[in-house]
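[Meeting: bench + compute handoff]

Bench side (C.D.) handed over the final construct sequence. Compute side (W.E.) agreed to return the predicted structure before the next meeting so the bench team could plan truncations. Sequence as handed over:
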Amino acid sequence: MSHISGGRWSKSIYAREPLRTAETRLWRGVLEQAYADAELSLEVECDDELFIDQIRARRFLRADTPGEKEELRLVCDYAEVPFDRVLTWARKHYTPAAQQDLEEIEAKDAKEVEEIVKAVKDREAIPHCGISESLASFPSFTSLTFVC
């Protein structure tokens, strides 16, 4: 008995994944990039541009404004991803921009202030000597010293 024609191999019991077009993969990539940007873990030393990218990505995924909502709906349609699920998930996962972003900015500013205070204290701890004391250790030079 041939496995190819009449046996159990003739029909697949597994549902096949629909083939994704290049355009669908592109728009899914847009959503993936927005998610990656929204999930950036930012440190004190991070670039302000990364912080702005994170805020923009979260706003886009939450669809805070009517324009962002329409843009997200369009991207989800092109990506063949349910818009309502993305929106519901993002609004649960990311708190509204005003409160969370203010808290992040305040935390970042507090860390910077702590670092500045520490640097000043470290600088004060270094023993300073007066200019006259530091120059006293050098030999005195006269015009006769460099005669050839």
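W.E. noted at the follow-up: The chain has a mean pLDDT of 75. C.D. will use this when planning the next construct.
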